[in-house]
Each structure stands twice: as structure tokens, then as C-alpha cells.
Amino acid sequence: METWVSVLVGLGLLAGLVGYVVRPILRAGRQPSAEPWLPDPTDTSTEELAELLFQRDALLAALHDLQMDLQMGKIGEEDFRRLDALYRARAVEVLRRLDELQEGEAEIAPTEAAEQTWEAWIERAVERARQATSSSPT
What we know:
The protein has four helices and no strands. The protein is an all-alpha fold. It has one domain (31-135). Helix 2 runs antiparallel to helix 3 and helix 2 (46-72) packs across helix 4 (111-135). Mean pLDDT is 75; it is low at 33-38 and 106-110.
């Protein structure tokens, strides 16, 4: 009886090992995108909304940090103006797209939903990075 149990456990472990080894080989034919951690720009689903909310929050934080850096003397006036214009231009693009997606809705995202959006975005980015590394030939 113990012999059969040992044989079955050994076969199960062997099958798992073979599956683990063969999986990357079978997936090697798929072409990952150049930047798999970035969302698809043609996707207009809730993932796009989550990405835009993430970008909105990140840009607002960057603008705030930039202002603080100027006040503390970490950056010069010329660099501040250049970066401020760049961040503001991108923020306008993001806000316009958010307006398009949220047309007719009063609130874009409450604070709790925004926190969940950050967490969801991080989880998706990590998953995409893992998929890219596991499917890329080494």
C-alpha cells in the first residue's frame, strides 16, 4: 500500500515539474508587447478610467512636489517653468479624457475609490511585468 502511495505522489510531483518546465516553452511563441506593464491605449473600459485617475493623481502630486522643490531651492526657475508647463499640459490631456469618459456623471471618483484604483493599478502593473518576464525567452 505504501508503495502505491509513494508512486502516486512521485508521479504527481513529476507531472507538476514537467508542467512547470514546459509552460514557458509553450508560451514562447507569443509576442509580448514592447511595454507590457502599460495599458492598451485603445481600451476604453474601466481600466482606462483607472489609469487616467492614477495619472491625474500622480500629476497633481508631481505639480505639488515641483512647487515645493522651487520654494526650497532644489531647482531653478527655468527648470521649474519647463517642468511645470510639461506636467500641466499632460494634466489637461488627462482631465479632458476623464471628462469624455465621465460625461454626465457628477463625481469622478471618491477618495476610497481612488485608493482602490491605485491598488488595482499597482496589481495590474505587477501582473503584467510578471507575465512579460515569464513569457520572454531568457
